[in-house]
Each structure stands twice: as structure tokens, then as C-alpha cells.
Amino acid sequence: MYKISIIIPVFNTDNVLERTIKSIINQSMDFKDIELILVNDGSTDKSGEIMDNFSLKYENIKAIHLNKNCGSPGKPRNIGIKSSNAEYVMFLDSDDEYDKYACEFLYNTIIDDDADVVGGMMSLKNKNGEYYVPISSWVPIIDKTTDNYPTRKKRVEKKLLSNELYKLKFNSVKDNPKLITDFGFTTKIFRKSYLIKNSIFFPENLNGGEDAVFLFNSLINAKGIIFINKIIYYYDTQRDDKNNHSLTHNTSLKTIESRPKSYKLMYEIAKSHNQKEMFIRELLYSKLMYWFNNHLFNASNLTNDEILNILKNNKILFEECINYNAGLTEFFTNLFKDIKNLNFDAALRKINDKRTKFSKYLVSIIIPIKNNKIYIFDILDYFFNLNLNFEDIEIIFVDDGLQQDTINIIENIAIKYDNIKFIITRDNLNFENLMNLAILNSTTKYLIFLDENKFILENIDILYEKIKGSDLDIVSLKSTKFHKNNIEKSDSIFTNPLELDAYIFNKEFILKNNIQFESNQDSLNSFISKCFNSYKKHETIFSNSKISHFNDVEYNSENDEKSFNINNILDNIISIDFNEIEEFNFPRDTVFELHVNYKNIIYSFIINFSSKNKNLICFGPGAHARNSKNSKGEIIKPPYYDRWSWYKYFDESFIAYADPIFLYDQKITLGWFVGDKNQWYLESLSLIIKKLSKSQKILHENILFFGSSGGGFASLGLGTLIKGSKVLLNNSQFFIMNYHEYHIENLMRILESSFNESSSEIIKRINYRLNIIELFKKEKYIPEITYYLNLESKHDFQYQYSPFVEELSKLDLYNNQFNVKFYRELKDNPHEPLETKETLNIIKLFCKQNLFNELLNDEVIDVHNMENSHNKKLIIEKSKFECNKEYIIILENKLTDYHKQLLNNQSDVVSLKEELSSSQSDVVSLKEELSSSQSDVVSLKEELSSSQSDVV
């Protein structure tokens, strides 16, 4: 018979599950006295395998597998309770840990005091990785005086810190009603028999709050409740920000409506125990205010109808708070009275005012959508790359006669992203009514309307920054273009609003003037015209950036003397010769495309020279498929740039450069800037970048080259050729000939044709172009390198990193210029770089720490801690794996030590050789001394013999 059964529901936590299980195996209580029940709630990662491995190793670990996810941990926990064989039960989440003495403290106390429930303290892990014990919830329980809160808190802290054996005993919650405000059920142990007797189980139909119902039911039924001053449980607060299945901050409809459902269940339990007033006064009113402030007001993806249904379904809760004059603030008193009196329009107005103030979004974009599935994903893809972060935009799709399959697609997208809403046809509302409903359901102060065939590529931030905080009703934007540094701009005043390219509206202005969509063939244009007829303050601004009709995007192309087409991505294009660079007056703070002719080879760039600081970041390209297509199904033509749209994320000057080899060969997929017999493209590129940086007075020390894979190889080469610059890499190549055969075969085909020699001869001739170590030797220089390596990419580790470190350690040039950062990320292709937002954060922090830091804007945006990065892949299928951060830190430290040892191996060998050589010299000296000593002995013998003769 076991003493305790510990129940853990498991869902996709393979990165931390082993750590959690070991926190139980390593308890101070003998593990043989503990039954561990793991309930696999339909995991799709390796969690099930980990459970089975432990179950096979330990007979007291039980692994239960459910066929599909239940949507809530309630059912797995109930299965655990019914499957348990101990007299007492405890609960643990699969991504948290118990203190080493947790089981021993709780079990001994519940046995000694014969209680139904015993609980201890929880320790929280903050953003800095430090643990702290929050005692705020225990202040009203321990200190019942009427003193002010700070005074009471100090007394409680002193009491707990000075007495580790401090214990509180209660016969029931009636002794101290404040007990029901403690919701840490994982810090407690429960007598199983009283749970079964009173049918105390977890609700199985809730998406949050099921644990609160269970604990409330447990406490209100318990005879004997004890609190001990011991840390029981370690909780990682960061998990709520990592999309790791915690529902704490989820704003989906199911989760939002689940919490009042849980309060309603607790209300019924309290009524059945004649404790309704205690529940309302001690708990309900505060929980409802918390729910509004921390959930509903932040749930910008909910529609008014959905909110109205929640209010109506839970009307009794708001009514009871008014009836019992609970401790509501003035705002909530008025709101709850509106709900009680069925004045739902007034209640919705109050709620939507708060939602606007609480909204984490800057602007709402309302988009009518027809049956164009590709358009849906393409427009989202563009939003992910806007100069405003995707997370700052509220997107509202409006049904414009959609078929069911398209509706399903949008609904699935809206479920995955909190900032996406979908207004769908219902109650015989026509399209215009739906657009008006979208305005009412928006939660921001500013609105942008997009025609189904038109959207802004780059200028939302320009519009927003102009109207933000102003008293303007409308801001309009007109685009301009320039070529060869000549900017053309029309200064005419536009009388026809439809001539403008984009608009942003103050929502309050639209509502105050009752401007609505009306049924006609051109409802959007009619709406905009009405806005212009009603405004008091309006401003038109100009932009040098491109605004485009999505369905009409055309790629311009120009022919040069070599008779091939250059695909232009931007409208702003500059084409010059190499010798013109230094004298050319390049625009600043405006993105443009540059084509430079150097020795009859065209080098292409996308550039944004900044006036904000003196740094330059350069991005290099990797492999590109020649048959990839755009959204219109057209083949994308070279030049190919990687990460060119990232310029909008940086205050630094920005260059994305392309490999010319794609222009001159139709089959190549990765060229590494190797060039041909006449020209080494990487060297020529370095000369152009030197001139460009010189034209902007940017020092080499303030240049950073970033790239992954083949782009990392180019970055390394440029960092070596442009001495003083820094290099930041992710899963880079160091040795071209160690890379995948199909890329190498294409490259050697071109080289053999150009050099008219065999592959082996070419490799010998241009080894410095193919091998970074050989380039270091040639240039007699090693740049400062920071290298991020995914340890799941076995090919990168085995064929690139390991031989590079080995060869690097042999160079006399090496002086700790190579700094490696290991991480572990499981994905279909582990060679792929880190996600966009994590990469951006790494680059921003690197610039702040390693480049010239006289920034006009000294803020470094921490994109790493934002929610998941967004791209089309994540819309279609979410990654199944997460990186185990703590394990990575340990692993990184270990492998960094290994890395340093490997690099220092050369010096160790040299030292050993010197010691050996010295020892050999010592041996020779000893031999000589021995020989001399032997000669002395002979001489002594002769002298002795002579002396004996003399004596005779």
C-alpha cells in the first residue's frame, strides 16, 4: 500500500516532463511509498514515450494513455483519482516541480493532525529565473486585524520568516472564511476517502477554472484544514507566455466563458452548504472583477454578441453581488446594475470603452473577404511583415458571401490568433450591416478599411504615428516614387478622397457622426466619401514608399548590356556603376533597391540608410529554389534577397545583398558568392559594401554581417575581408565541400565550365573561396564571430562545426575570436534558422552590446519574449516541439566548456611537447652527470690503489 498517490496530467511537455518526474523520484520520502500516476492526455510529442520508459523502470509509476486530448486537465485528473491506490492524493502539473521535502512535510502533517486537507507555500519563478514566495494571499488569512495592508504584510512576513514550524489549524472554512481565497491546489495533500465520499472531482467541461471548483468544493467540505510554513511547489510563471498549454492568459471564447461557468458551479456548491453569502462576499465579487480586468477586457477577439451571451448566461452572479452589496468598485457596481436591470446596451458600452482602453492593439484593420483562400493567407503573410508588429494589429475579417469551406478556414485562423476576429453572416444581416458591426466590435481608437483587392504594404505605421494622440479625424496618405535619386512629389491638394492611396480614421469621429455603410454597389468608396464630407480635421501626408494593389502587383524589369532581366521588388530603384558610389547622394530613411555594375557583373541590394545611428547590418542569402512561385503562381525571378523586409525592424542602416550567380546561371540553387575565373564575387561585394559604408561615414567596426547556412558562409567571408567588422551566424557553413552534394554538383558544373579544369584542380586553385579556414590563412586575419548552432542539426555539427573548431585550434592567428551559442530546437529540418522574432532579438541585443551605441532611440525591443512568431507555416500547422530553455542553458555551458577545451587543445599539446623536450634534456644531463660520476669513481679507485701502494 502506498502512502501518497501523485497525479499528473500530461500533454505535450516532453521537454520538461523528465525533470518533473525526477522531482518526485528524488523526494526525501522513500519513493517506494509513492504511487505516481501519469495520464497522457492525447500528447502528440514524445511525452508518451517518456512516461512508458519510466513506467517500465519503476513498478510504482503508472502510465495511462488517452486516445485524444480532453481539452481540459479535469478528466485526466479524475481518472488519476479513481486509479489511485493510496489513502492520500496530490496533484502536480507536468511542467512544474515539487520541493524535495514536499511529500514528507505534507504527509507527516496530515497523519499527525488527522486532517482532510493540508497545504503549504508556492514558490514562483520570475523573468530573471529567480524564485520568490508570494505571501499576499496569506495576509488576510493569517492577520485578521483592521490595520492597513502594508503593516499587516510586514507582520506576516516577519512571522513566517522567524518561525519555520509555524502552523495554522482550522476545523472548517467557517473558522476562517478567507481560506476559500487560496487557490493553490497543487500545494496541498487531500484525504482520498473524503473526496470520494463527497463526490469531489474536477469538472470536465471547462477550459479553465476547473481546479478552482475542485479546491473550493474540497475546502467547503473539509473537516480539518491545516496550513504549514513550508515551500511545497515551484511554479514557472514564464510558461504562461510560451504557448505551453497553460490556459491562464488564453483569450479564446471557450476560455473566457469558462471562468464564469466555474464561478457559477462554485455558487451552486456554496448554496447547497448554506454558504452563499460567504462565497459572494469573500470570493465571487473579487473573482468577477478580476475576470473582467484580466480576461474579458483583454479579449479583443470576442464579438459583442458573444459577450452579450456570457452576460445573460451568468446574470445571477452579477445580480447577487448587487443584492449582497459586495465590495465592488463604482465602475463594477454600475456595470452589474445594468446587467441586473437587463440594460445590456449600456453594459456593452461600458465594456467596450474599457476594452478600447485595455486593448493591446494600436489599430484595427477591417477587411471584407470573398472566396479567395489564397488571398487570405497572402494578406496574413504581408501583415506578419509589416513595419508595425503583427501583434499590434487587430484584424477583423468580414464575410462577403463566403462558402462554408472558406468560413472554416477563417474560423480556424481566428481560433489560433487572439488579434483576429471574424464577423460572419447571421440573423439575415447583409454585408453593409456586417461592416457596421465590425466597427462596433473593434477595440482600438483607429480604423483602417481595406478593399478586397487592395492593402497597404508598408505604410500603416506612417498613418498611425500621424493620427496617434492627435485631434485629427482622418489621415490620408499619397505615395511618391523616385529613381536615380530624383524624387517626384505632387503638392496638389486632393479634393477627391478616392485619389488617395490609404486612410486611417478616428473611430470616435465615425461613431459620433453616425457614419455607416449603406447598400450600394460601391459601399466602401461611399463610406469614405461620407467621412470626408463630415470631418473637421484632416491631413494628407506623402510617402516615398510603395503602396500597391495586391491583385495587380507587377514586377518591373530592365535589360542591361548582358541581356538578362533583373527582377525589381521595389519601385524605388537606383542603378549606378561602381565608381559612382562614393559621390552618389543616396536617400536616407527610405528603402530602395540598388544595382551596381562592377566589371560587367551586376550586384543587387535592398538598402535603407538610417539617420538614427552609425551602425550597419548586412544580411546574406542562402539557398533558393528556382521554381518557387509567388501568390499569383508566377515564377519568382532573381536577384534573391533573404530577410530584406526586416529593414523596418531596425534603427540601424540596413543592407540585404544578393548573389549575382543566380542572374547568370538558370540552374544554380546556392552559389556562396564563389564567382568564376575572372572574378570572386564575394571580394567584389566586399569592395562595394566598403564604398557604401564609406559614403555614409560608417566605420568597419560598426558593421555587422548576419546570415544562416550559405548566407552565414558569405557573412564570414565578408567579415574577414572587411576587417574590424563583426559576424553573427546561425547554422552556417564553413566548408562548402562538406555541404550537400546537389548544391556542390551545381556549383562545380559552373566552375569547371569557367576554369576549364578538373574539380580537384579548381579546389586547389581557389580553396580560399571554398574553405573559411583557408581564407583566414590567406588574409592572416580572423574576425569576431558569434555562432548559434542547433544541436539537433547533426549535419551542421558533424560536417561544419566540429572540423571548423579542430582546424581553428591549429591556427596561430586564433585568439578566442569564436564564441559559440548552443541551443536545441526540434523541427522537420533542424538546419533551418531560429524563428524570425528570436533572431531579431538576438541581432538587436548584439548591436546594442557590440556596435556603436550612440542611438537616438536607445530602446531595444525584446521580441524574444513576445508570443509565438507568426508566419504562414504556423497558420497551417503549429510546431509540435518547444525548446527546453533550462536544459539548453546547462547543455550550452557544458558544450561551451568542451568547445573551449577543444580550442585550447593545441596549446595543451604544445605545453606537453615542451615538457617532454625539457624532460629529454634533463635525461641527457643526468646521463652526462652519471658518466662524469663514473669517471670520478674510476679516478678515486686509482687514487686509492696508489695510496695503498704508498702505504705498503
Automatic annotation (TrEMBL):
Q: GO molecular function, one example?
A: hexosyltransferase activity
* Superkingdom per UniProt: Archaea
Q: Which residues form the Glycosyltransferase 2-like domain?
A: 5-145, 364-511
Q: What is this protein called?
A: Glycosyltransferase
Region described as Disordered: spans on this chain: 930-952
List, alphabetically, the SUPFAM superfamilies matched: Nucleotide-diphospho-sugar transferases
Q: Which Pfam families match?
A: Glycos_transf_2
Q: Which Gene3D superfamilies match?
A: 1.20.5.340, Spore Coat Polysaccharide Biosynthesis Protein SpsA, Chain A
